Amino acid sequence: PLHGRMPILSCAPPDRPAVRRTMERLSPLSGDGEACVDALLGLSADMIEQATAENLARTGGKYDVEILLESKRRELRRAGLEVWSPVTDLGGLSGLRTVVESEVLPFLHDEQLAIRRVLCAGMPGMGKSYFSRWLGHRLKRLVVNWSPGKSKGKYVGDTEGAVANIFKTVDALAPSILVIDEIDCALSRESGDPTSGPVMQMLLSWLQESRSDTIVIGTLNRLDKLDAALESRFSLRFFFDLGTEKEREHVAAIHYRRLGCENVSAVANVTAELTDGFSSREIAEMVCPTVARQSQRKSTSDAIKSACASVTPASKTQADQLKAMRQAAQTLRRANDPEPVASVPTGSRRIAKGGG
Questions:
Q1: Where would I find the beta strands (DSSP E) of the chain?
Q2: In sequence order, which ranges of 112-236 are alpha helices (DSSP H)?
Q3: Residue 28: Cβ-neighbour burial (10 angstroms; 0-12, 13-18, 19+)
Q4: C-alpha span between 109 and 67 (Å, rounded)
């Protein structure tokens, strides 16, 4: 009944000068002061004051960027945004990297040519989220994840209020990267959630009207469920398919190295040969750690074969979904490496059966 009878004032989070004034009021900034200000951009005035006070109390009056970032991550989590850590390497996906290097990065600050909306479609575990974290490292930007389903409130209007706050916070965090995770599930035509319609309209309006320097990456597992109006808001659209053998080798090498395994190059080569049909996530989370445990990080052939045999990849258990996704994604750019040209095998590297 009060709608339309009372003025609504929408207050954006403090800008850089305001953040600096708040911090300077509590203690003078020096040295890496700009990094300290950056660490708190996007928070409300109260949150900034609280985070600053906590920092000064813990350090005896000195500013610490990591402590400020820790406070920021905590406050963003309460608001419905998860901060993702960057990664330095990307397993394969040269089709995607080529476009990013040639079409996205050179025009980031060109208002007419900038690409700030990227859609990443594919089965789970193909590298969509990993790409977002790699791009964050590449651009030295904060990466935050928003799952629309987690913004639902108990009462009428709660969801819309939470979503509006998400968009205001994201605009204030710019320049940054926002990942809207599983956008097809929470905002699909078939979700049956009465709040999905209003949230969809809010998202469509924000994607169209926001002028902030925010790169938005939408990830989804079912392209056929995505609303056409939402799909059209993304100017760059990629399909993430199962990795080629070379991509699987690259992914395996990244994670064997991370786990401290021996003889990484040869082990990754053998793993790639035995994981046809496996997703990047299955290799990273199921195969590589199992090999490392069973071989005490010495990565034997027997351990690799045993680990691969113990996993049934989703490409087999969800073959129909993968086929439907490939059919629906025919008009999208391919994120993966080019398919290798068939050639006569020249033999591959092997590792000792009993050890590294």
A1: 82-84, 117-122, 142-146, 176-180, 214-220, 236-240, 333-334
A2: 128-139, 158-173, 183-186, 196-209, 228-231
A3: exposed
A4: 30
pLDDT by residue (tens digit) across 248-284?
999 999 999 999 999 999 999 999 999 999 999 999 9
% of the chain with per-residue pLDDT over 70? 89
Phi, psi of 121, deg, nearest 5: -110, 145
State CA 280 to chain mean position distance.
15
DSSP run (H or E) holding 121? strand 117-122
Q: Does the global pTM surpass 0.90?
A: no
Report whether 139 contacts 8 (CB < 8 A). no
Q: Which two tokens stand for residue 146?
A: 């928003």
The per-residue pLDDT for range 91-149, each reduced to its tens digit, is 889 999 999 999 999 999 998 999 999 999 998 899 999 999 999 999 999 999 998 87
Instruction: Return d(Cα 222, Cα 124) in angstroms, integer.
Output: 10
* Residues facing residue 215 across a β-bridge: 177
Max distance between CA atoms of the chain, in angstroms, equals 79
Which DSSP letter does residue 244 get?
A: P
CB atoms within 10 A of CB 329: 19
Q: Taking a C-beta distance cutoff of 8 angstroms, is the pair 37, 29 a contact?
A: yes
Closest by CA position to 117, among listed 278, 277, 243, 230: 230
